[in-house]
Amino acid sequence: MKSILIILLINLVIIFRSKKVYACTGTYVGSKVSKNGSRLIARTEDIGSAHPKSVIVYEKPFWDNNLYIDKITGFEYKMPNHFYKYYAVPDSDGNNDDGIYDEVGFNEFGLSISATVSSYCKEEINNIDSLIEKGLREANIASLVLSTCKSARESILFLAKIVDEYGACECNNIIISDKEESWYMEIVSGHQYIAIKLPEDVVAVIPNCLMIDYVNLDDDENTIYSKDLINMPKENNLLKFRNDKFSIRKTYADDLGSYDRDRLWGGQNFLAKSKNRPYDYDFELFFKPDEKVSVKDIMELQKYRYEDTKKDANLAINNIDGFEVRPIGIERQAECHIIEIKEEFPREAPGLLWLCLGNAEHNIYLPYFPNIKSVPEVYSNRFHNFNENQAFWIFRAQGTLAELNRDKYGSNIRKYWSNHQDELIKEQDLKNKEFVSLYKKDKSLASEYATSQINEIGNIFYNKAKNIYEELFKYVASEAGRAAEEKYIPSEMKETSI
Question: How many other β-carbons are positioned within 10 Å of the β-carbon of residue 463?
Fold first, then answer.
């Protein structure tokens, strides 16, 4: 009975704090401006705090007769005869809710995808090239690409062909990577799109808006775009310019609102503080960071609530009726990820996926190699409601309690996970060398090693999160009687400090 009451209460807390809003924040860091020479592709999936996610290794298609069907919208696509194995991070509820939403993952050829950051086109654009109800949407993109394509460029051409033939249900921003290159695609209306090969000497922070301005459309090596990208708005007197050049963003999208501007201002100043860009700055997609950017830096960016600035989202004054700051580190993150493409890794296993289940603020990112065969059962389990046998719910539950009082409940939890994160990143350097060495000798041995690593650390950190949740629940519950004088400290932190 006691455990049932606890489950019911934590469910109520999580659901109360959840806002079902489709929104994400993406980040890109080129290899020439990253601290260790890796290319970094990152995103927070801000769909809702009570939105369970699972990690699934797909050995075979989940569709029948080579026909992919979106059971929510009716979109259908005839798939090729081949199927590439992949792992991804779908919604636990899948078609019982709003669709598959594989979101992020690697396939057996080393192709990775982060899909998507939702975006929106102008009403005037939608009136002449409407979004298609049965068109391509976010819920389908990662599944289609990872099961079908081998390279980033091939993936962009594949998606472009689908939008040409079937149209798009939504505007979306997508990053697809292989060992050699990353491509960024914006679907900007029902049948129009633009994709560019990402440069290696810049960074980008991408909120829920179209961000590509001018590009050289004659550069076939670095751009892929729909045939009427310019003609359609031109024929309807909707062309817009920036610095006397055709601007895709200004033509297809509304001006920035605070929902997106908050994150551009916060993200660009987080990575390039010396530039001190004002809130009303005319932000561009790419910029140069002050210093080379590490994986840990991006983890901290995904937690960032503009602390120590005038827009600190933790301050009551910034969250009053009619005004609410939109932080990057928002409570409704369902998962956060960083794809790290590494120079020394092989082409078919080119890097790591750092994955955080639940929101990042009081949490940890675990490293997944590309060629894993399985994950711990608690990570692949799928439960609609809170269940301690699913890793998502445990990580989400301890974070939810921590954020009820960030100082008293959460400050030491954040330190606890940050210390473990530093250790994991340091240890991963040695594991990466072992993985690469094994891969050169025998790919199957490397795959077994990769699988054993995530199964080992996955269980270790699930148990650590479960211990924090159980301790903190008791601590928070006891506050209803007599408030504790000291902040909550995880027992493991107390033991190691003795």
Answer: 12
Q: What's the CA gap between 226 and 163, in Å, rounded?
A: 9
For residue 20, count other CB atoms closer than 10 A to its CB: 11
| Residue 58 and residue 298 in contact, taking contact as beta carbons nearer than 8 Å | no
In a domain, residue 38? The reply is yes
Cross-strand pairs, 41:
28, 339
| Residue 39 confidence (pLDDT) above 60 | yes
β-bridge mates for residue 123, sequence order: none
**Beta-carbon count within 10 A of 281 CB:** 15
Contact 359/333 with Cβ under 8 angstroms? yes
Contact at 8 Å (CB) between 303 and 406? no
Question: Which SS3 state, helix, strand or coil, does residue 196 take?
Answer: strand
- Domain membership of residue 439 (yes or no) is no
Q: Looking at residue 497, what is its pLDDT? A: 61
Q: What are phi and psi of 304, to 5 degrees?
A: -70, 125
Look at residue 50 and tell me if it is in a domain.
Answer: yes
Q: How many CA atoms lie within 13 A of 362 on its CB side?
A: 28
Identify the pLDDT of residue 22. 52
pLDDT single digits (tens) 285-299 = 999 999 999 999 999
pTM over 0.85: yes
- Amino acid letter, 436: V
The pair of three-digit structure tokens given for residue 126, joined into one six-digit string? 């939608």
Q: Residues 154, 138: contact at Cβ < 8 Å?
A: no
Domain that holds residue 197: 22-383
Contacts of 99 (CB under 8 A, 6+ apart): 70, 71, 72, 73, 91, 137, 139, 140
For 469-484, the pLDDT digits (tens) are 999 999 999 998 889 9
The domain tally of the chain equals: 1
Pair of tokens at residue 152: 């980033």
Please state, in angstroms and as integers, the Cα–Cα distance from residue 190 to each residue in 289, 292, 344, following that order.
Answer: 34, 38, 40
